[in-house]
Amino acid sequence: MDNANKYVGMWVTRDGYIRHELLPNGRYDEARGNKKSAYQGSYIITGDHIDYKDDTGFTADGDFREGILYHAGMVLYRED
Q1: Which of 34, 44, 45, 76 is exposed most, by the fewest CB atoms within 10 A?
Q2: Domain CATH code at residue 70
Q3: For residues 4 and 44, what is the distance between their CA atoms, to the nearest angstrom?
Q4: How far apart are the first and last CA of the chain?
Q5: How far apart are CA 57 and CA 66, in angstroms?
Q6: What does DSSP assign to residue 6?
Q7: For residue 70, is pLDDT > 90?
Q8: What is the domain count for the chain?
């Protein structure tokens, strides 16, 4: 399994406020609070690093370490 597929799924902050769904087609959907699809865009995973580009052109990145996604000052955990 390549890394992109290894990380596909839902990632959430501990309080559940921010939810990143990494889709298998290289797209993501981010929900914030009660707002579904607050941000959408594409992502590329290289090793354990993720680069995001939302549909407005905004970019961000993050790193997966020991099963946790560290992204823009947030800590997200895989949701089972």
Answers
A1: 34
A2: 2.40.128.290
A3: 8
A4: 19
A5: 29
A6: H
A7: yes
A8: 1
